[in-house]
Automatic annotation (TrEMBL):
Organism of provenance: Jaculus jaculus
The protein's name: Tyrosine-protein kinase
Enzyme Commission number(s) of this protein: 2.7.10.2
Keywords: ATP-binding, Cytoplasm, Kinase, Nucleotide-binding, Phosphoprotein, SH2 domain, SH3 domain, Transferase, Tyrosine-protein kinase
Domain SH2 as annotated: residue spans: 130-222
Stored PANTHER family: TYROSINE-PROTEIN KINASE
Role of this protein: Non-receptor tyrosine-protein kinase which phosphorylates DOK1 on tyrosine residues. Also phosphorylates KHDRBS1/SAM68 and VIM on tyrosine residues. Phosphorylation of KHDRBS1 is EGF-dependent. Phosphorylates OTUB1, promoting deubiquitination of RPTOR.
One of the GO biological process terms: TORC1 signaling
Catalytic activity: L-tyrosyl-[protein] + ATP = O-phospho-L-tyrosyl-[protein] + ADP + H(+)
GO molecular function: ATP binding; non-membrane spanning protein tyrosine kinase activity
Region of interest (Disordered), residue spans: 33-55
Family recorded in the similarity comment: Belongs to the protein kinase superfamily. Tyr protein kinase family.
Amino acid sequence: MRSQPGMEPFLRKRFTFLSFFWDKIWPADVPEEDFPGPLGSEAEPVQESPVTAEPCSPTVPRLQLFRALYDFTARCAEELSVSRGDRLYALKEEGDYIFAQRLSGSPSTGLVPVTYLAKATPETLSDQPWYFSRISRTQAQQLLLSPANAPGAFLIRPSESSAGGYSLSVRAQAKVCHYRICMAPSGSLYLQEGRLFPSLEALLAYYKANWKLIQNPLLQPCVSQTLPAPDEWERPRSEFVLRRKLGEGYFGEVWEGLWLGSVPVAVKVIKSADMKLADLAKEIQALKSLRHERLIRLHAVCSVGEPVYIVTELMGKGNLQSYLGSPEGQALSLPLLLSFACQVAEGMSYLEEQHVVHRDLAARNVLVGDDLSCKVADFGLARLLKEDVYSPSSGSKIPVKWTAPEAANYRVFSQKSDVWSFGVLLYEVFTYGKCPYEGMTNHETLQQISRGYRLPRPAACPAEVYVLMVECWKSSPEERPTFATLREKLATSHRCLQMGFT
């Protein structure tokens, strides 16, 4: 029996996955339409955006759901093998047979004896292990990127931007891809125009078998777990706009940005290739717990997915090394230089009390505000660098000229190795940002230090401050002063110097 003119091409195009069924109704003398091409931009793993709906089409009746009561083995090419418990959609009744589409396993169609089947009540979505009804896009990412889930884990959730719609979220290694599931006027669902499905289950069955169309395999439903309480520090990346690159260091790029369109912030964009991201969450927790006026203040983090953002207050004059070398910095008086040293010592004394080892203390990691206040930054991040990045074997990558010998040679970091670095920072301050051990390679620097060489006293450095610098460079870590002692002695020197200038 022939359909109305135009009906056959329409059904073949809109229900291509039923090609076996259409070939039975309309013999193959009419060529089948080609499948649509690869996934378009609307289904790429990008942020969800409005999708143009399909043109209106005639209403397609809902299909009856069946469940297999017994195993059935196909005896010819037209029949379909099923196992007990398989769920199928009846596409057409043919006497004692039902032409059905199997939903479980690879999607297939064929004839099954009606005596092997029983009508089934459609399961609600809440019964499906892959459906998560009350989570956001950000929470989906948290779940899929958690240790309980591996690449290939997936879930379906309500769409945040399209009322009544759905989104498919799939873990692909260290990121999550999101795909919009659209609904045609007929009520059918699709990821790509021309490939329609009567249910989410049928859609998943198809893309499990044809995962290359979305470039990510669907291997197992996301493992459900209790999501942590919302973190007041965790914010979506969409709240931040990066405006101007300020610099780049061992830990990534630093950008000047805006938070929610109005709050100026500094955004450190972590280089995942060089970072041990598995340890980052613990280090960020430590950052949240540290509070001192001489430490850079944390505003927010974006730690779900990549790249990781660490968002802090913006210090108007940039890092201390660059500021000291600027025309404005070159004109600073001796009391202001000593004030910088005192402020850094205050911040490091607090870290000492908290048993936090900085590992990379240097003028480049101290930030200067418009009011010439100084704040220590990047404390603790060096421990997250991969061994091949932060080790003597990688040559210039380790800051050897600021690093205590026991840390540079044997990776023994402590508060006392931070004290050595502070001595080098004092040298930077009183030379207006000059590079220590200028003209020496890292290897030559370590050799000279092992022979007892120490940096000379800068011309602008008071004698009593140089005595402290040399004490910071004692070969034995135990002989070096504490930051509490350094803070007190520098404060005393600063008061005396101020009195002499007034």
